[in-house]
Each structure stands twice: as C-alpha cells, then as structure tokens.
TrEMBL record:
Protein's name in the database: Tripartite tricarboxylate transporter substrate binding protein
Assigned protein family: Belongs to the UPF0065 (bug) family.
Gene3D superfamilies assigned to the protein according to its UniProt record, in alphabetical order: Bordetella uptake gene, domain 1, Periplasmic binding protein-like II
InterPro entries in the record: BUG, Bug_dom1
Length: 311
C-alpha cells in the first residue's frame, strides 16, 4: 500500500505545474518578459509553467508570498531589481515584508536594462553638461521617474548630489505615464529604460543625455555614461531574474538555472528582450546572489544618505 505514495514522493522534478509569481500587474514589461520565459521553460521541461500576478506594495506583496511558499521548486519569483530596494524605501507591514538577503534562493539573472536620461527637445540641450549648466544658471529642471524609490529615482537623486544641482523629482505610477509626459513636455527630462523610449529617440522627439550603467550600452553606443561624464560613483542599472523560496533543493535550482541559461542563448529571446530595452545576462545562480547583495549594500547606503523614500 506504500508503493504509490513512495513513488509519488520520488517523482522527478517537475512533476506538476510550476507557478511563477510576478509582483506587478499584467501588461507591463516585467509581466511580458516573465510570460516569455514561462513559455520557453514550459517547452523545455515538458511541464505547465503559469504566471500568477500578485501586485501590491511596490512588488512587496508578491515577493513576500514567495518567501513564505513551500521550498519545493513549484513556486518561483520573477522580479526586477526593486525587489532589492523596496524594503529600504518603503514602510512595509509584517505581512508584506521579506528578507532580501536570506529569504530566497537565487536562480539566474535573466537580463539587464540600462537606464537612460532623456530630455524633451524643447529644453534646448543636447548633452548632460548642457542641462547641468542650465540648472546652475537658474532654470528649474524637472525629471520624471516611474515611482518614488525606483532605480530611476535613486539615480536621479544621486546625480543631483554628485553634480550639485537640484533637478526636481516628479514621480509617476509606471514608466509609461512618465514617458508620455516627457514627450508632451510636461516634464523636462526622465530616467527610463530604453525599450520605453526607443521610438522617440529614433524620431527625434526625445534626446538621450546619459546612461546610468558603468559601460555604454549596445542599444545606444553613442550615449555617454555618467562615469564618463565625471560622476564616477554614480552607477545604477536595472536587472531582472528568478528566485525561489529559501531552502529549495540545490538540484532543482541547478536544473532551472541550466534551462534558463539555455533559453537565454536563443536568438529570438534576445530579440524579444531588446524590444524592452533589455540585454540577455545569464550565468551561475550565485551571480544573481552577488548582484542582489551588492545592490542591497550600495543602494542601501545611497538611499540612507540621500533620504530617499517611497512615502
């Protein structure tokens, strides 16, 4: 009578549907990228992989849900890097809080998304030095971000301090509305990801001024970095990746890592990511762990020093 349960217990992973939690509403970049990976992973594992959207509290509710889920490989988290900074900029209730450094098993860093500072042409600048000169000359310069406490907000305030200027932050609820308003001229500039503004850069309705990453981006090789422009410590990018609950078996993490790395090698995946201004990443699971812990330390200090809050 014990053969059935014993056989079930030893069934090779994955023996049932895998749920990928996305802590944001359907329709955004994170959701779309997650659905692409879920489809590809389902094909490779010959098992159903579904997306379960659990938005709320800047992503914290879904992140918390995964941290409390069974560590069996059947509940995963796909998230962008506000995963790391949300607890640092938000006053989270116990029901929404989670342990960034010790509550999850990293699986793989799937992609990076360089941040770019863009300006409306009516501002009359072509470079970041021009914009800074304008601000120091007395013009009030505004910059949009997709939300208080976002990587775009962090890089904007960090640049303010490094350049000794005061670009006024205008937070929006998402990248889309911030792009709409900078194109319309309601705000002077915006920190965004490339995918959201590529068409506007190509038709001249927005002007690229600087990249937030340490190196120039393949997506816009002619746009200088903040490092090149003299702000050597101001480096903020965007990334996304997969995590599992702490204690998920190492063989399961290894299997998922290997399959997702193979998916990232597919040309159509790189093409799809480029639509969102993202570049394939990949690598060992501990690479994502190191990225997460480094961001927590470095961004945590910046957030504290500059008093950045999502309130």
């Amino acid at each position: 009578m014990t053969a059935g349960p014993a056989a079930f217990a030893q069934a090779p992973y994955p023996a049932k549907t895998i749920s990928v939690i996305v802590s944001y509403p359907p329709g955004g970049d994170t959701d779309a990228i997650a659905r692409m990976f879920a489809d590809k992973l389902s094909q490779r594992l010959n098992q159903t992989v579904i997306i379960d959207n659990k938005p709320g509290a800047g992503g914290a509710l879904g992140n918390n849900f995964v941290s409390r889920a069974p560590a069996d490989g059947y509940t995963l988290l796909f998230t962008p890097n506000p995963f790391t900074t949300a607890p640092l900029v938000m006053k989270l209730s116990p029901s929404a809080s989670y342990d960034v450094l010790h509550g999850f098993e990293p699986i793989v860093n799937t992609a990076t998304q360089p941040l770019v500072l863009v300006a409306n042409p009516a501002v009359g600048v072509k470079t970041l030095p021009d914009l800074i000169k304008l601000a120091k000359g007395g013009k009030q310069v505004t910059y949009a971000s997709p939300g208080a406490g976002s990587p775009m907000h962090i890089v904007g305030e960090w640049l303010n301090k490094a350049a000794d200027v005061k670009f006024t932050h205008v937070p929006y609820k998402g990248v889309g509305p911030s792009v709409t308003d900078v194109v319309a001229g309601h705000v002077d500039t915006a920190w965004v990801t490339f995918g959201a503004v590529r068409a506007y850069l190509e038709n001249g309705r927005l002007v690229p001024l600087a990249i937030g990453d340490a190196q120039r981006s393949k997506l816009a090789p002619n746009v200088p970095t903040l490092v090149e422009l003299g702000y050597k410590d101001v480096i903020v990018g965007s990334w996304n990746g997969f995590f599992a609950p702490k204690g998920t078996p190492a063989p399961v993490v290894k299997m998922l890592n290997e399959n997702l790395n193979e998916i990232l090698k597919q040309p159509e995946v790189a093409e799809k990511l480029a639509v969102f201004g993202a570049l394939p990443a990949g690598g060992a699971a501990d690479k994502l762990g190191k990225i997460n812990s480094t961001d927590y330390t470095v961004m945590g200090k910046v957030i504290k020093d500059l008093g950045i809050s999502a309130e």
